[in-house]
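Q: Protein A?
A:
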Amino acid sequence: MELNDVDFDENVDEEMSAGGDMKSVKVKEEKEEIPLEALSTGWTTFKEEMGSSQAEKITDIEVDSSHLPLVTNESGDQVLRFYWLDAYEDQYSHPGVVYLFGKVWIESAETHVSCCVTVKNIDRRIFVLPRPTKYLKGEDTGFEVSLVDVYNEFNERVAEKYKIPKFKSKKVTKQYAFEKVEVPVESDYMEIRYSADSPALPSDLSGNTFSHVFGTHVSSLEHLVLETKMKGPSWLDIKCPQISTPPISWCKLEVFVTRPDHISVVNDASLSPPPLVVMALNMRTLPNQKTHQNEIIGIACLVQNSLAMDKPAPKIPFQQHFCGNQN
């Protein structure tokens, strides 16, 4: 028997007969032909399969974005209960705006879907440290400084110079624990809030009635996390959500809020985090002889459609797998 006559691609199923003899049944698997055009240019998916019959059925969920899945919280308010996983901001193109990405529960579909929450109008927040005594042309005048003096100088000199048309201020007490020895451990500050559309102030800014300004370059995302006390991925209640149009992401649901104080952390330990859709990606590269740069020639992916964050790994590691190569 010559090896050239053997078809190694044939599937052979064997079953035992009543007399103990082996009956061989050969089943020829029909192979899907790949068009020649698909092999000549671009990327080709040459292997794509689902998992075993035990894997969950994968369906595409259609969400009616005109009706938000609101729930009633403990205070009796209608809110969007949202589990945030990641956040993004663009300080240059969209100052004062933070995009939160996560999931919400859709009762009609009995599943979680992706959601993007846009938080707008996050103000800059700075802290101005008053001097003990007023300076004039670099010399100490000996006159005691009040917060009214600090406010007047900021309003007349700083706000006008840096084009800050409107701001809010109040007295706060803060503690300092860093390297500047001239800054008191605890002192009264003037907290100032103004729109992120106005420019950030220099970190070394000082004046006749104040010596330091802190928080000049703190990002909007940091302000949001500190104000709402969002300590990592968790459930949030979104008050007064409005539907975002046109869409700005690939999420199933998109909403926005006009104020950051419309977001609050849900303190309910009984709420479990939603399952995740995760993908393991493996790539192979080869150097291009013309450009002398590495190029991706193959990609293989494994997809798990329901990975619980608070439970052990599932017995079925993935439901989908596919490969692709560059021709």
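Q: Protein B?
A:
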Amino acid sequence: MQNGDAYKRVQQLISESSLNTFRAGQHEERHRVRQLIDIRIDQLRGTCEIRYREQLCAELLRFRQHLDP
């Protein structure tokens, strides 16, 4: 393997590693947001004083569906 080939291979490995790290972080963030939405829906369902409670829950569920894999 020549120096140019070795350099290209190292660059490729770094790029792949960075992409995998980014994707893992993106997956973790989506999971965290889904959990927060679920918590908020549970809170809303347990509160009677909110005027448009069911509509808010439905909207949150719709947002959550966009985060599902």
